[in-house]
Amino acid sequence: MRLKATDRGYASGPAGIAALIAAVLALTVIGLLMASRGQASDAPLAKGDADGHYDEPKALGDESAEAMRSVVRTPRKPPASAPAAVGSGSDPLPASKPLEARESDPSPAVGPLFYTGEGEPDHSCSASVVHSPRGDLIATAAHCVYQREFRTDIAFVPGYHDGQAPYGVWVPTSVDITPEWADSGDQDHDVAFLRVRRVGDDTPIERVTGAERIRFRPEPNRPARVIGYPIGEERPLGCQNITGTHGPTQLRFDCHGLPNGTSGGPILTDVDPATGLGTVNGVLGGFQGGGDDETSYSSYFGDAVEKLYRRATG
């Protein structure tokens, strides 16, 4: 989970000490909140293999889907096919003015990751459907799915809004991260791919929601849109700006107000104005756990991420 923090200086003297104590207490409260939102040390975990691969037992996925019945409303008959792709072309994606995140319409291929193993399910990360040969793949940040071991209580709800799951609830069949993330939490490898299924239905998710394309070795300085779900919110936030870089291994996106919970959300270019689908150039995470209140990051989608994608879809 991204720790959206800003640097603050404190004056010396009693007032400064009081401010510092207040800040420490506030950070303690934030830490406790994070522990209750899918990042706690007692979260249900399981070991994967040495390469960073985990196959989720069907029973665990079924349990997560069942737990979600208490917090989301699913259509009696969820859509069996993706929304029609009408039109073509690319949205120019002008920079948001002012340059800050604001409430956005839900996108069929983007949704929150819920965690079901610690009381009432709640969401604290985001993910997106990306194109794959089997049509069953989503992308997110590695820190959203791996905390010393793999989370076993994940559920993905594409297009989520206002307690509704218009395309159903999807649970992992497998999770892939790089060995570098598994070994040391290397911020240049904060990417994960999950294959998912809908309980009682073998329709691939891509046929239901559509899918974002994925770009490896993306060029910076491109108009882009970020979308993600803040913790506890019922609708996503979105922001548009030009992508940049933070060294050779991180993509950078400047925008105020992308808080905890947006981790794993896609950085999209070449967005079709008719469908809202675009091309994933990165997922929020990486440097500083994803950034601060003004700047967000993504591990660069270079050779290592392409290799991870090939492994996840092989």
How do you describe this structure in short?
With 314 residues, the chain is an alpha+beta fold.
Write up this protein.
InterPro entries: Glutamyl_endopeptidase (IPR050966), Peptidase_S1_PA (IPR009003), Peptidase_S1_PA_chymotrypsin (IPR043504). Residues 82-92 have a biased composition (Low complexity). Keywords: Signal. Residues 48-61 have a biased composition (Basic and acidic residues). This is V8-like Glu-specific endopeptidase. By secondary structure, the chain is an alpha+beta fold. The protein has one domain: Trypsin-like serine proteases (Thrombin, subunit H), CATH 2.40.10. Helices cover 19% and strands 27% of the residues. The chain has helices at residues 13-39, 58-68, 179-184, 205-209, 303-313; strands at 45-46, 53-55, 102-103, 110-115, 122-130, 137-140, 146-147, 149-151, 154-156, 170-176, 192-198, 213-214, 223-228, 237-245, 250-254, 266-269, 279-283, 295-299. The strands form 3 sheets. Strands 3, 12, 13, 14, 15, 16, 17 and 18 form an 8-stranded mixed β-sheet that branches. Residues 3-38 have low confidence and may be disordered.
Secondary-structure topology with pairs:
Layout (H helix, E strand, L loop, with lengths): L12 H27 L5 E2 L6 E3 L2 H11 L33 E2 L6 E6 L6 E9 L6 E4 L5 E2 L1 E3 L2 E3 L13 E7 L2 H6 L7 E7 L6 H5 L3 E2 L8 E6 L8 E9 L4 E5 L11 E4 L9 E5 L11 E5 L3 H11 L1
Parallel strand pairs: 12-17
Antiparallel strand pairs: 1-8, 2-10, 3-14, 4-5, 4-9, 5-6, 6-11, 7-8, 10-11, 13-14, 13-16, 14-15, 15-18, 16-17
Organism: Streptomyces netropsis (Streptoverticillium netropsis)
Keywords: Signal
Protein name: V8-like Glu-specific endopeptidase
